[in-house]
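Quick illustration, no need to memorize.
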Amino acid sequence: MPTFTDQIGHTIQLVNLPKRIVSLVPSQTEFLFDVGLEKEMVGITKFCIHPAQKCKQVSKVGGTKNFKLDQIAALQPDLIIGNKEENEQKGIEALQQQFPVWMSDIMNLTDAYNMMLQLGKLTGKEEEASELVSIIETNWSQVKRVSKPLRVAYFIWRKPYMVAAKGTFIDHLIQQAGWVNIFEQEERYPSITLEEVKVLEPDVLLLSSEPFPFREKHVQEMRTFFPQTNVQIVDGELFSWYGSRLLLAANYIKNLQTTLNT
């Protein structure tokens, strides 16, 4: 019986290739569809929105944090796919008592590539996953670090304000662009005040479109408090989704480099 060890060190056994898959992570859901597993997908979260038409046809099992255990059990999955950061440990542990659960843990691009390759292997889509990862790697090899290391703060939430700091995938992409995260001494997603940000003298404030939906009115608020600082809304999916959306992220970062460094 084939065994597979996931990215948190948990081992699962699969008798056959999975035919009924539940995905609890939006970026991984998109990847599973993109390698051709639409017939196998039986359950996803309400936040799984890409690809739109295919996601509409699949049963929703709640959110990434508060997924419905009874609804998942009713789908009789032979594989559940989650993520250490995005899913609650208690719920995942409950699912592990009944079903094979494969977990990812993504800190950087290498982790993302390994996740996709491993999921390709355990779902019988190894060739498709390898081809997709190869394209993504090529795209990212063309992202060159800018010569001027702008000091940036990346906001993910409001009331309280929260930013992406060290140990996050977002921080890794900021580094890939050649910028400096002014909260690189903090861990994960700290709550901060605008006064604390001002003291660190950022060149750029990046306001993410998700999970909090920053809008133009929030840009104006920030510009009032930071009149000398460049404030930009950025696509949160392209900074934080670590599946096949990375196909689009490299060019997005290159264009953003041009916008911010000119």
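The two ends are 57 Å apart (CA to CA).
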